[in-house]
Structure formats: structure tokens, C-alpha cells
Specification:
A hairpin with a 2-residue loop joins strand 1 and strand 2. By secondary structure, this protein is mainly alpha-helical. Helix 1 runs antiparallel to helix 2. Helix content is about 80%, strand content about 5%.
Length: about 280
């Protein structure tokens, strides 16, 4: 298999794998949306329980107040009817006191009953709102589950289709290379094969050794970047990048020799220069 054909198939495999990885991640994320709705439902049910307890307690108090008011009104009316049959001032004072106290108690009970009626209506409305919220959440969760099930089925079918295409694309490629390439794509955010431009890996922007770049340039085997582990292929530049490789193919020793040669050609001698300076000082 020609290396260019191999690289092209790896690029195709990369695109298929990136899509599959994205879909698989989405499939894993789907249940989380249900979990959030279920959390809201749990809180709604807890709130409903608290509102239900308040409603029951308010109803109990309201009933007690009504019964107490009715009893007080009856007692007051009974005392008022007895006023016609009193025969002494003492009886009048006692009965009048009962009527006055009953009247005060009646006024107090009516005020308390009015407040409790308001609390009762408020708690009833809150309870009804909580029940409506629970029903709405349960309906939304059920609808969401149905949608997720349909989406998972569709996504699973697409994943199976992508796996089939991946298998065909990598059929003649070494399984170890495929395994390593897939691992690179998953860890390098979908990029597993990149060009070398000049002497630089475009994946990690690291400068590569000159001999290593030449091996990549020959394109006779699969080469992995020693820094980011991506598969490399050489991409011809516009001239300037190639010069970088030529410069790096030399050594610092060669550069030093060139500098020494230039110095000798200029006839420059550091010792002669120092002697001249010394003579000038002696004068």
C-alpha cells in the first residue's frame, strides 16, 4: 500500500472515529437530562408533602375555630334569652358579664377564623400548584424517556454504521497502528495525523531533529511524533521552511569552523591587537 493512500485512509478513519466518539458521548449524556428532571420531581414531591401537612393543619384549626365560634354564639344567645327572666340585680350583673365575655370571645374567634381562612385558602392553592407541578414533571419525564429511547436507537444504528465503515477503511492497516491511532485521536481531541512543516510538528509545534524530519520526508514507513505521538507526514513548504531543515542538518561545529575560516581570511589576530594596545600604553 502506498504511503499516501495509507495516510488518506487514516484521515478517513479519523473523521469516522471523531463522529462516532461524539455520538457515543452524546448517548452517555442523554440520561443526565432525565436525572436533572427527576431531581426536580423529588424536590417537588418533598415540597408537596410539606404543603399537604400545612393544609391539613390549617384545615384542623379552621374547623376548631368554627366549632368554638358556634358554641360561643349559642352560649351568648342563651344568656341573652335569660335576661328576660332575671329577678335580682346580682343575677343581672352575672348574666351581663357572661354576655359581654361571650361577645368579646366571639369577636376574637371571628378575627382568628378570618386569618385562618386566609391561611387555609393559601395552603390549598399552594397544594394545588404543587400537585400540578408534579403532574407536569412526571409527564415531561415520561415524554423525555420516550425521546431518549428513540434517539438512542437512532444513534446506536449510526454508531454501528460508522464501525462498519471504520473496519473497511482500516482493513489492510496493521491492527497495532489502528489501535494506537484511535487512542491518539481520543486523547488529542480528534487529531491523530498531522503534517510536518519545515522541521516543526504542526500538532504540538515542537521542532523535530533534522534526521527525524528526513525520515518523515522519505515517507516509507509510519512515523510517530516523539513529543505528541501523532502520526506524521511531510508537507512541502514554499522554500523558507525547507531552509530550516537544511540549517538543522548541519552542526554547531560546522558553524564554528565557518566562523574561524572567516576570521583567518580577514587577517585578524587577537594577540597582535593586544600587543599594540600595550605599546600605546607604555608610550
Amino acid at each position: 500500500m502506498l504511503m499516501e493512500d495509507l495516510f488518506e485512509r487514516l484521515r478517513t478513519f479519523q473523521e469516522l472515529l471523531m463522529e462516532r466518539v461524539a455520538i457515543e458521548k452524546e448517548i452517555r449524556e442523554l440520561p443526565k437530562s432525565i436525572a436533572a428532571l427527576e431531581e426536580v420531581l423529588i424536590r417537588a414531591r418533598k415540597s408537596h408533602g410539606e404543603k399537604s401537612a400545612r393544609y391539613v393543619e390549617s384545615k384542623r384549626k379552621e374547623t376548631e375555630l368554627r366549632e368554638g365560634l358556634a358554641e360561643t354564639v349559642l352560649q351568648k344567645e342563651k344568656s341573652e334569652r335569660q335576661m328576660d327572666s332575671i329577678s335580682s340585680p346580682r343575677e343581672f350583673e352575672a348574666l351581663n358579664k357572661e354576655i359581654t365575655e361571650a361577645g368579646l370571645r366571639e369577636d376574637q374567634l371571628r378575627k382568628e377564623l378570618k386569618r385562618e381562612d386566609e391561611n387555609y385558602r393559601e395552603s390549598e392553592e399552594e397544594l394545588h400548584a404543587a400537585e400540578t407541578l408534579i403532574q407536569s414533571q412526571e409527564q415531561e419525564i415520561n415524554e423525555k424517556r420516550t425521546r431518549i429511547k428513540n434517539e438512542e436507537t437512532s444513534m446506536a444504528a449510526r454508531v454501528a454504521e460508522l464501525r462498519s465503515k471504520e473496519s473497511k477503511t482500516t482493513a489492510d492497516i496493521d491492527s497495532e497502528v489502528v489501535f494506537k491511532f484511535e487512542r491518539i485521536i481520543r486523547s488529542k481531541q480528534g487529531i491523530g495525523i498531522v503534517p510536518v512543516r519545515g522541521s516543526v510538528c504542526s500538532g504540538c509545534s515542537m521542532i523535530l531533529p533534522a534526521q527525524f524530519v528526513n525520515e518523515v520526508r522519505q515517507s516509507n514507513k509510519i512515523t510517530f511524533c516523539p513529543y505528541c505521538s501523532r502520526i506524521l507526514y511531510y508537507q512541502e513548504g514554499e522554500g523558507q521552511e525547507d531552509v530550516l531543515v537544511d540549517i538543522e542538518s548541519g552542526s554547531l561545529a560546522d558553524f564554528a569552523d565557518d566562523f574561524a575560516d572567516e576570521s583567518e581570511d580577514d587577517g585578524y589576530d587577537s594577540n597582535d591587537s593586544n600587543d599594540d594596545d600595550k605599546d600605546n600604553l607604555d608610550d
